[in-house]
Structure formats: structure tokens, C-alpha cells
Amino acid sequence: LAARHGWRFCYAGHFNGDDANLERSLAAYRDAGGTRPLVALYAVAAPTRDAAEQLIGPLKIFRLQFAGGQSFNLASAQAAAEFARQSGASDYRIDELRPTVLADTPERVHRALDALSRRLDVDAFVVDSPVTDYAARLASAEWLGGAQSITPVQAALAAERFPSLDQNA
């Protein structure tokens, strides 16, 4: 549909991290005459990989899959069951998924994005953040967007502002 209308296609990798589905979707778009697609994904940067993973927390998505193949992503199993109930469906499945997140130092996240770009022939990403704390989310975005590295001073400031990020704690 996107290729037929001349639109750019963006694969929602932050909701569906299945590599085979990603590659099939990008190939279908290209085969239909689409230009270079985009890929949306979750990425988090912090002074250390452990600190980045701490920021993510227990990130889960609950996929409600109806018998006819239609699916919806919801924030909780209860929300998925309620959605199914309200739709009148009795034949459905709820799968708990843990989305893929690039969580590491800014340099390693950038390297991972570069590798994905080459592997998928994608020239741009839509980067989403699963971090709920505003200050930590902002710091992560700033590191991803501008800093190719975190200096010792930046790491110390981050540890001061966000004790949970302190790699020595």
C-alpha cells in the first residue's frame, strides 16, 4: 500500500522485533516499487550497558491475536483480554512479548544502528524510547543524538543526576 501511494514505509520494529518478518516486510515494500524504508526501534543510551538495561525495566507488550489473523498490541494482559471481550471474540490468543531494545553506551548503540543500516539497506531509523523517567529519557536522547561518546565528566554528572545509572553503585 505504501509503495503504491509513493509513501515511505516504516516497519514498527519496536512492536515486532521478529527479524524474519522485518526482512519479509522490507522486501515486499521494495518489490512493490517502494523507496528506502525506515525501521522504528527502541534505543537507550547510558554510561554503561548495565545502566542502559536498568532504565528499560520490565518492558512488555501483550499481543492479542484473533483467529482471523488480526492482531493488536496492548500494554497489559488484562487490557488485551478486555479488548477481546469487548470485540465479542472468543477465539483469540494473548502472547507476552519483550521487545528488542538497543541498550548500551552511545558508541555501541551507534555501531549497532550502523550495522543494522548496512544489513537492512535502511538509511534512517525512527528511534523510540521505552524509558519512563523524563530526565533519564532526555539524557539518553541527548547521548544518542549528539554525543558519540560519554566523557568521564558526563558519566560523573549522570551518576549524580541519576544514582541508578552509577556504574560503581
TrEMBL record:
Gene3D superfamilies: Luciferase-like domain. The keyword RNA-binding does not apply. GO terms for molecular function: monooxygenase activity; oxidoreductase activity, acting on paired donors, with incorporation or reduction of molecular oxygen. This is Alkane 1-monooxygenase. Keywords: Monooxygenase, Oxidoreductase.
